[in-house]
Write a structure and sequence with these properties.
The chain is an alpha+beta fold. The chain has one domain: Muramoyl-pentapeptide Carboxypeptidase, domain 2 (2-Layer Sandwich). It has helices at 10-13, 26-39, 52-57, 82-95; strands at 3-5, 8-9, 45-47, 74-78, 99-102, 106-110, 119-122. The strands form two sheets. A five-stranded mixed β-sheet has the order 3-4-6-5-7, covered by helices on one side. A hairpin with a 2-residue loop joins strand 1 (3-5) and strand 2 (8-9). Helix 2 packs across helix 4. It is globular and about 35 Å long. The mean pLDDT is 94.
Length: 123
């Protein structure tokens, strides 16, 4: 297990297709760790880095925060109930995340500056 920042590991962020891609943007990771620490509970990474093929297979956008262009600046965090979603969203906003997506079982946090900022969307 390779620790990259706080309690996050490179294995958590590796592309789920099995290719091993796990290049995460360091400032993104520090901001993510700050947000997680402020919630006071651990986070489970559902999706971190994605290679082009896996992103396409998942139905991801061409300019997805998950893509390593040049490094991953997006993550989906497990959030199975309203209270957890609220805690993650509030801590993410306080940490400076301006790209947030809300799914039934996860929260997306993105930090790619070339994508629209100040947005929240539903899946």
């Amino acid at each position: 297990m390779t620790w990259i920042v706080g309690r996050f590991t490179s294995e958590e962020f590796a592309c789920k297709c099995g290719c091993g891609l796990d290049k995460v943007d360091p400032p993104f990771l520090w901001k993510l760790n700050l947000a997680r620490e402020s919630t006071g509970f651990g986070w489970v990474v559902v999706s971190g880095c994605r290679c082009e093929q896996h992103n396409q297979d998942e139905g991801g956008e061409v300019n997805s925060d998950h893509l390593c262009k040049p490094a991953c600046e997006g993550v989906d965090i497990k959030a199975n109930n309203a209270w957890v979603r609220d805690q993650i969203l509030n801590s993410a906003q306080d940490a400076g995340f301006r790209r947030r997506g809300i799914g039934k079982t996860f929260i997306h946090l993105g930090d790619r500056s070339t994508n629209p900022q100040g947005v929240v969307w539903l899946y």
